Amino acid sequence: MILRSKIFIILFLVLVFNACQETTKDKYEDPKGAFSIAYFENPIVNIDTLSSNIGNIYYYSFLVQESASVAKLVSYSDYPLSGEDIKQGESILRSAKESALNSLGIKDIVKEQRIEGKDYFGIEIIGKNAEMYFMHYKLILKGNRLFQVGLLKENSIEETEEESEFIHSFQILP
């Protein structure tokens, strides 16, 4: 009986200790060292080579389908551009933005804001389509690499704390 009571007390203390711990989410770091982000499970990783009129574009994507109504994506593409071509970065961003909006049927833009850093620039977009899918998307160009960070969810533009952490925790690694 005394042993059972001690086991019960230990189990109770372990449960209380675990309940009091603040949950922390590990950062996922790209195996090639391109970025880190708060991911809540291991993403499905895809690597493709896309042929284009400017040469091969290497495309890396990282996807987490959290549920039937929430998906998170990070991707980056390496464009075969020289220093002169990189000056056309605005057209690359514009093209990527239109492609993302069109592929999801996003017509209603709630927010569009420019992003600028020391050695990168981009845009952040929040929008929705007629089927009530909401998209929070960042497109960031650093040199010849285009990063895309996206949250797609159904029926609510409101982000949970974890969803907001996902979008805002994205970091380009040196």
Q: Outline of this structure?
A:
This protein has 174 residues and is α+β, with helices and mostly antiparallel strands. It contains 4 helices and 10 strands. Mean pLDDT is 82; it is low at 3-24.
Per CATH, the superfamily is Mog1/PsbP, alpha/beta/alpha sandwich
In the CATH hierarchy, the architecture is 3-Layer(aba) Sandwich
Helix coverage percent of residues?
25-40%
Identify low-pLDDT runs. Answer: 3-24
Structure report:
With 174 residues, this protein is an alpha+beta fold. The chain is built from four helices and ten strands, in the order αβββββααββββαβ. It has helices spanning 2-20, 83-86, 89-104, 161-168, and strands spanning 27-29, 35-38, 44-52, 55-67, 70-78, 106-116, 121-129, 133-142, 145-154, 171-172. Mean pLDDT is 82; it is low at 3-24.
Question: Which descriptors apply to this entry?
Answer:
alpha+beta, single chain, three-stranded antiparallel β-sheet, about 170 residues
SSE blueprint:
Layout (H helix, E strand, L loop, with lengths): L1 H19 L6 E3 L5 E4 L5 E9 L2 E13 L2 E9 L4 H4 L2 H16 L1 E11 L4 E9 L3 E10 L2 E10 L6 H8 L2 E2 L2
Antiparallel strand pairs: 1-2, 2-10, 3-4, 4-5, 5-9, 6-7, 7-8, 8-9
